[in-house]
Amino acid sequence: MPMKRRVIIDTDPGLDDALAILFALGSARFDVLGVTTVAGNIGIERTTRNAGGLLAVMGRSDIPVIRGSDIPLTRELQDIVAIIHGSDGLRGITLPEPLNLPLEDASGWIAKTLAAAEPGSVDILALGPLTNIARVITEHPEALKGIGQIIAMGGTLNEPGNSGPRSEFNFASDPEAVSVVIGCAAHLKVVLVPLDVTRKVRAQLDFVNGLPETAHGNLAREVLQAYMLDGRQSRALHDPCVMLMALEPGLFRLETIRLDVDLGIEPDAGSLLVDERGTPVAVAMGVDTEGALALLRSGFV
Q1: Least enclosed by CB within 10 Å: which of 25, 165, 218, 226?
Q2: Cβ-Cβ contacts under 8 Å for 213 (sequence gap 6 or more)
Q3: In DSSP terms, which residues pair with 274 in a beta bridge?
Q4: CATH classification of the domain holding 68
C-alpha cells in the first residue's frame, strides 16, 4: 500500500462536499488530520454540524472538526445555494449527532498543525470558499512550510459560471481570499480544479445505483439521490474531484496558466482572469472521466 496522504479538509458541507468527505474517510488512502469548516453552501453552524455528523457516520471520533470563518474576508456572505443544497445543506438527510464538540479557530488550528508537521507533508484539500486558507497565509506565514500542496475546487475558465456569467460559487463567495491563495502559488504548490473539469465528472443514475452496500456507500447513494431530486439524470461531482486529484493526479491534464482574480462587484467578482502578468498556477483542464468515476467508486467498498 502507498503511504497515506496526510490532509486537512477545509469544507462547507453541502451535498457534494459530503460525498467527497465520505470518499476520503472510506478510501483508506488518506490520513485526515482534521476537518475545518467555513460558511459557504450554508452558514457556519450548519456546515460545522454537518461535518461532525459525517465523521460520526464513519465512527471517526479521532478526527477533530474545527469551526472556521463565518463571513468572507471583506464582503457579505452570499446566500444563494439553498435551492441546490437545501436549508440544512443536505436536503433533509438526517445525520447522527457529532461525536465531539467542535474546536474553534480553524485558521489557527491549521497553522499550528502545519508548524508541527514535517516540511511539505500536509496537503490542504479546499472544498469551499478559501477564507480559512487565506487567513493562514496572511496571518501565519511561518507555518506554510508544512504545506505539500493546496488543491482547491473553484473557478472556471471556459465554462459558464454557476454564480455569475463567468464566476463560480466558491470563488465568488470570497474573491479576496482567492487572490491571496493564487498569489502564494509563486512559492507554494497550488492546484485549481475548476468547473471546466468537474462538469465532466458526472454521476449518472447507474453510478448512483451501483454504489456498494456499505454504511458510507448507502449514505453516498442517499446524498446523490437528494442531489438529483429536481429530476436531473446526472449531477456534476465538483468537490470529489479534489480528492481524486490528490490521489491520482495522472487522471487529470494540468496546465500552468497565469491567473489573476476579478475583485470587482457582482455578478463576476471572483472570476479567474488569464493575464500574462498574473501568477502561474496549475489548473486542471482535462480529465479521464471513466478513470475518475472508477476511483471514486472504489472509495465506497
Answers
A1: 165
A2: none
A3: 259
A4: 3.90.245.10
Active-site residue (options: 140, 187, 216, 238): 238
Calculate the average pLDDT of the chain. 93
Q: What's the Rg (C-alpha) of the chain?
A: 17
**Are the C-beta atoms of 128 and 12 separated by less than 8 Å?**
yes
For 47, the domain range is 5-298
Backbone angles phi, psi at 54, to 5 degrees: -65, -40
Specify whether 140 is catalytic. no
If one counts the domains in the chain, the total is 1
